[in-house]
Amino acid sequence: MTTPIEFFFDLSSPWTCLAFHNIRPLAAEEGASITWRPILVGGVFNAVNQSVYASREDATGPKARHFGKSLKDWAAWSGVPMNFPSPHHPVRSVHAMRLCCVLEDDQPALERFAEAAFAAYFGDQRNLDDPEVLRAIADEAGFHGAALIAQSQSDAAKARLRANTDEVIERGGFGSPSIFVGGDDLYFGNDELPLVRRAIRVAQGRAEA
E-assigned strands of 1-86? Predict the structure, then answer.
């Protein structure tokens, strides 16, 4: 029995980048399928998690310093390049996420573009808020970048991003990545992936709830 996972994500989050890489082998090992769901995390924060903005104001305190260390440790453990923060952080991700919405109905294509965009931002420090950079990333990943950029500016792409963002909020999400296992069982972030693994096993009757 294949257990469905929904992965609501925004390309601007370093922890989402790590979870994107780490959840795929986990799902393959445990017999789960992943559906990638693009959202605008700023819209989520504005609606239900405004405290995140206050936490960004203190970039020198002990919690912030440990955040940086933990991110580097997780990146090393995951084998994911993490050249962060970049000069563009926090990046405005609306253009990138609308482009992701254009690809959402073709899940392998969306996964391929997301992988390339994560590498471009967190590895090469390229600006995901620049449509020309997005076009180049898409071209490098084997897409027709100019066509995708044009589609991402459509009313349909904008509406889909709003709808996905509203949906994750309505279902209890408060950031990126918001991960749902088997329907409405919500987990948040890279750190909770061991719990995602357990939830899959519970859903498949291989572990006790």
Answer: 3-9, 32-38
Q: How many domains does the chain fold into? A: 1
Range of the domain at 88: 3-203
Could you give the CA distance from residue 37 to residue 1 in angstroms, rounded to a whole number? Answer: 22
Three-state DSSP at 189 gives: coil
Residue type for position 101 = C
Residue 115 to residue 203: CA distance in whole angstroms: 28
Per-residue pLDDT, averaged over 133-159, amounts to 98
CATH number at residue 112: 3.40.30.10
Tens digit of pLDDT for each residue in 75-101?
999 999 999 998 999 999 999 999 999
Going by C-alpha positions, the residue among 121, 109, 129, 39 that lies closest to residue 80 is 121
Tens of pLDDT along 7-49? 999 999 999 999 999 999 999 999 999 999 999 999 999 999 6
Measuring CA to CA, which residue among 7, 11, 4, 35 is closest to residue 100? 11
Judge whether 118 and 83 are in contact, CB under 8 Å: no
Q: Which residues pair with 34 in a beta bridge?
A: 5
Beta strands in 109-181 (DSSP E): 178-181
The verdict on residue 155 lying in a domain is yes
What's the chain's average pLDDT? 94
